[in-house]
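New to this. Please check this record:
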Amino acid sequence: LEAHYIQLDTGATDIPAVLAASFIAPEQLFIQPVPPDQSDLSRELPETVGLLIGLMGLVGALGLVWRRHYGLGLSALVIAGMTLFMVTSASLPVWLTTTLLGQLRFPGRVLGIGILAIALLAGGCLLWLPARWRSAGAALLIALVMAAALPTVYPSRDWLDFSNLSPVDAIEFEYRTTAFGTTSYNEFKPFFGQESTPYDLPPDLDTYATDPFRLRVRDVLGGTAQIESIGESSLRVTAESPVEIRLRRFYWPGTRVTLDGNPVEPQVDPFFGLVRVPLPAGTHTVTLWQEPSLAQIVAPIFSLVCLGMILLLWWRGAPLSGVMPEPLSARLAWGVAGGVVMFALINSLLIQPHTDWFRLRSPVDQPAGMQTAVRQPFGDAYQLLGYRLDQTSAAAGGRLDVILYWRALRPLDRLYRPVVQVVDEQVT
């Protein structure tokens, strides 16, 4: 309902390149993930279904066919097949021609939804077992799946403290990374301003920690003025000559402004898309508020309707006999829940703080994944430790991945971005 008010709906010229660099190679879809290197600042979870889940999905699909659950098996196979197709480069035309789909930018995100269908297929493995063994078989398969996932359950940077975050931290993060609204591409920024977001630190930054929503003035145009805050949504402005104030609020449909209690039409700053209010000389009270949009009105109603449907299904009882010949025992469900809670406690109290089990921590000057050492310093800021090149050739229009390993030689006060070039040694 509101996509046409933000840059998400305007498209971006870099989307084809970002998509092309983010697809998952078919041979990577069903591999057993290796433990992330805890010494690596850019630690990422591998994008893969996993070897075990892939094998279970294949065996389970055959089990669904054998037990003649054709509808369930076919539906899960179609969704799983579409998922695997959408994360590979063959789906690029679909990403580029489907409205707003390309804005996801990273095809691997589709796995988060499609893995449910693959997991449903994997559960079909139980259909190969006699009914009296299915609970024990389910417990064994769940344990195997959890064991296969252990190398990837420790990706967090445990030296970061998130316990005392405030809006000041968010503002400083945006200023340092230029990731407005914690997004890298400004896709949720209102499109009313033609230029980029004003990345500046407010002079009263510390006050955002306790009063983040108070109305503030970014600057005064055409003269000088004294600004006094009155509550959360009002300002008292005193100016000796006519001026315009530019507020630290993006214009959005439904923005309402009053001047000395009288409604005035808010103006939109064409540079940043902020709200501008012209003021005559003298002392005036400016009040700003936002009327609810159609999306804000519809969303809670839609949620309440869905909640009512869930309660109705729960009250009537949803039939399960059409999915499985008979339900699994409640004892298994409690056993799984208890096992997860027990592992979480052991992990928090013993494994994570006192061991390196299931984790890889390589020396900071010798990354585990690095193949070729370079050790080339760049001034006193960075050293290029080396690189990894998993292939020696690429087809025309194909993809060639080069993984560079860097080390900071001192605390850095800015962000650096390397540029990788392919050159012909016979020419340059």
